[in-house]
């Protein structure tokens, strides 16, 4: 029995959430086979060995360059058979979750999404899931022999445990039915660091007073190699693009560090950031609700604090 891990990529590089999925699968104990679909950098594939994959399969068919859910499902179902895998692990992402559901139906597997921990196996196979946008947890037992686990961001640490492995080409047979939905074009968000993937996010709210003041946040973000985000009113008012809007109705982020500047901390905003490892809040109102969710807080005027913070970080570098 082996564990199959579907690894996602962007711009040829393996996504951090997929490295976490490989590390999680490695911690489960059985031999891990990682599979990547479409165009992926060869070096990035070989490096999957460092995170715990004993074997790496690469289906480089150009039709898989776009994330076509039906086609990805077909390839993963076949790969589970070929690898004699009872467990599929993947990232709980906009691509991973629908693929997970379809693979579970086609293989008769038990499915758990948003999984946050390794299973308890003393009695059955019980995993913990994050529910209600991260405000609660549920324990669920996966009873079928086959299991599909969609792992929540930051649920496992992608640490190096091995060394590079050789990549094996994986031939796929795809039919027209696998491409019943055709992606005609896709618009990629621009910017140096993509928000959903970022390790550090610098986010601004209405307290920034206007689009013309975002320079100090961009400078801080550049210094930290961070992505920029914002609250909903900020994108509604057109100060920032909509793809930067963080929260219940926007992007849900799970960086190592989330820096919130001039954001009050409404529940709908917190729903998108409460999986962050550390939260730093900068707000001039000491009673702003965000401070209750913060690991560190600075009570002060953003226009005073942020440039000083950026200068201090530059000096520390
Ligand atoms: C159905 C629904 C869904 C929603 N979804 C989302 C969502 O996904 N994401 C989201 O963000 N919101 C969402 N909202 C809106 C949410 O309820 C809040 O209204 C919003 O998050 C507030 O944005 P804000 O914190 O930027 O603005 P405000 O609430 O106006 O807060 C501004 C903050 O800036 C501080 N401030 C002012 N000046 C300075 C200064 N010079 N220096 C430092 N601090 C300063 C103030 O003290 C204040 O705390 C949703 C609302 C609804 C009803």
Automatic annotation (TrEMBL):
Transmembrane segments: none annotated. Residues 3-183 form the Electron transfer flavoprotein alpha/beta-subunit N-terminal domain. SUPFAM superfamilies: Adenine nucleotide alpha hydrolases-like, DHS-like NAD/FAD-binding domain. The keyword Zinc does not apply. It holds the Pfam family ETF_alpha. The keyword Electron transport applies. It comes from the Bacteria. Keywords: Electron transport, Transport. Belongs to the ETF alpha-subunit/FixB family. PANTHER family: ELECTRON TRANSFER FLAVOPROTEIN ALPHA, ELECTRON TRANSFER FLAVOPROTEIN SUBUNIT ALPHA, MITOCHONDRIAL. This is Electron transfer flavoprotein subunit alpha/FixB family protein. It comes from Ohtaekwangia kribbensis. The lineage of its organism: Bacteria, Pseudomonadati, Bacteroidota, Cytophagia, Cytophagales.
